[in-house]
C-alpha cells in the first residue's frame, strides 16, 4: 500500500527547517540531520577523508532537514582493484526507531526519493535500507538479524548468501529473498529482481516486518535496533543524492516496550 503522510503534519514540520549544509569526511564521522543521523561508515581512514592510503575518498553532506525529513548526499571515488568488499555505507539513521518491538509495531512508512547525478562505468554499489534486529534495543548487546531491502544495484553487486525465494507483490513490488550470515548474525535481503532503480519509494514498511515474522521465522519479540537508509559502495566513482527521505512512525494508542 502506497503511503502518504498527513498533509497537516508535513506543513507543520516544514516550518522548522535546518537549511545550512554540513559535510563530513572522516571514516567514522557522523552529524545530526534533523530527526536523523548522517554517517560516513568508511572501511578505514588515513586522515582527511582519504581511505586505504589514498585509494579512496568520500564526502557526505547534510543539505537540509526538518524533524521528519532530510536531504543528503555522498560523493566518492574508490580507485581500488578489489571490488569484492564493501568500502563504505554512507547512510542516514532514524533517531526514533530503536526499541520498537515486532509484536506491537506502530505504523512505519518510508518515502525515499534519490538519484545518481553521476556514476562511472566501473561503479559497483547498491542502494538499500539496512535494518538491525535483536533481543534487546541496543546494538552493542548484539544483533540476531540484519534485514536489507535493496532498491538498486549496479556493477555486479549482489546480496550475501543464497537466493531463497521469489516474493510477489510485497509493498507493491516483487522481490528476490536472499539469506546468509555475517559472523553470528543472520542476514535476510529483499532484492529488487529487475535490477531497475526504485528511485521513488513510498511504502508502508509494515508488510516487510509482517513477512519476516510470518514467513521468515523472525521471533515476534524481536526489537528494532536501527533503521538506516544509504548506499553501499564496493568501488568506482559516483555522486549519490537523496532529495527527500522520511521514515514516518505513527503511534496510535501505542507505547513502545522500551524507551525510544
UniProtKB/TrEMBL annotation:
Family the UniProt entry places it in: Belongs to the glycosyl hydrolase 12 (cellulase H) family.
Gene Ontology MF, one: cellulase activity
UniProt key word Hydrolase: yes
SUPFAM superfamilies: Concanavalin A-like lectins/glucanases (SSF49899)
Keyword Signal recorded: yes
UniProt record, GO biological process: polysaccharide catabolic process
Pfam families: Glyco_hydro_12
Name of the molecule in the record: Concanavalin A-like lectin/glucanase
Signal peptide, first to last residue: 1-21
Family annotation (InterPro entries): ConA-like_dom_sf, GH11/12, GH12
Protein keywords: Carbohydrate metabolism, Glycosidase, Hydrolase, Lectin, Polysaccharide degradation, Signal
Species assigned in the record: Coprinopsis marcescibilis
Amino acid at each position: 500500500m502506497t503511503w502518504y503522510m498527513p498533509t497537516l503534519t508535513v506543513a507543520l514540520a516544514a516550518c522548522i527547517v535546518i537549511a545550512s549544509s554540513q559535510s563530513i569526511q572522516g571514516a567514522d564521522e557522523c552529524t545530526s540531520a534533523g530527526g536523523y543521523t548522517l554517517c560516513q561508515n568508511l572501511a578505514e581512514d588515513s586522515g582527511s577523508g582519504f581511505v586505504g592510503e589514498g585509494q579512496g575518498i568520500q564526502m557526505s553532506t547534510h543539505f537540509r532537514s526538518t524533524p521528519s525529513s532530510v536531504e543528503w548526499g555522498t560523493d566518492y571515488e574508490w580507485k581500488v582493484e578489489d571490488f569484492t568488499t564493501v568500502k563504505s555505507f554512507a547512510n542516514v539513521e532514524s533517531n526514533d526507531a530503536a526499541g520498537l518491538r515486532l509484536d506491537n509495531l506502530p505504523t512505519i512508512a518510508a518515502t525515499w526519493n534519490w538519484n545518481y547525478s553521476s556514476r562511472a562505468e566501473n561503479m559497483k554499489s547498491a542502494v538499500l535500507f539496512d535494518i538491525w534486529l535483536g533481543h534487546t534495543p541496543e546494538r552493542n548487546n548484539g544483533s540476531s538479524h540484519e534485514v536489507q531491502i535493496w532498491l538498486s544495484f549496479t556493477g555486479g553487486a549482489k546480496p550475501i548468501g543464497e537466493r531463497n525465494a521469489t516474493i510477489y507483490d510485497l509493498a507493491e513490488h516483487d522481490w528476490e529473498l536472499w539469506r546468509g550470515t555475517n559472523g553470528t548474525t543472520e542476514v535476510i535481503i529483499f532484492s529488487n529482481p529487475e535490477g531497475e532503480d526504485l528511485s521513488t519509494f513510498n511504502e508502508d514498511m509494515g508488510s516487510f516486518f509482517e513477512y519476516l515474522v510470518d514467513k521468515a521465522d523472525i521471533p515476534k519479540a524481536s526489537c528494532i535496533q536501527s533503521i538506516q537508509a544509504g548506499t553501499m559502495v564496493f568501488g568506482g566513482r559516483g555522486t549519490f543524492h537523496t532529495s527527500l527521505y522520511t521514515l514516518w512512525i505513527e503511534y496510535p494508542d501505542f507505547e513502545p516496550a522500551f524507551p525510544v
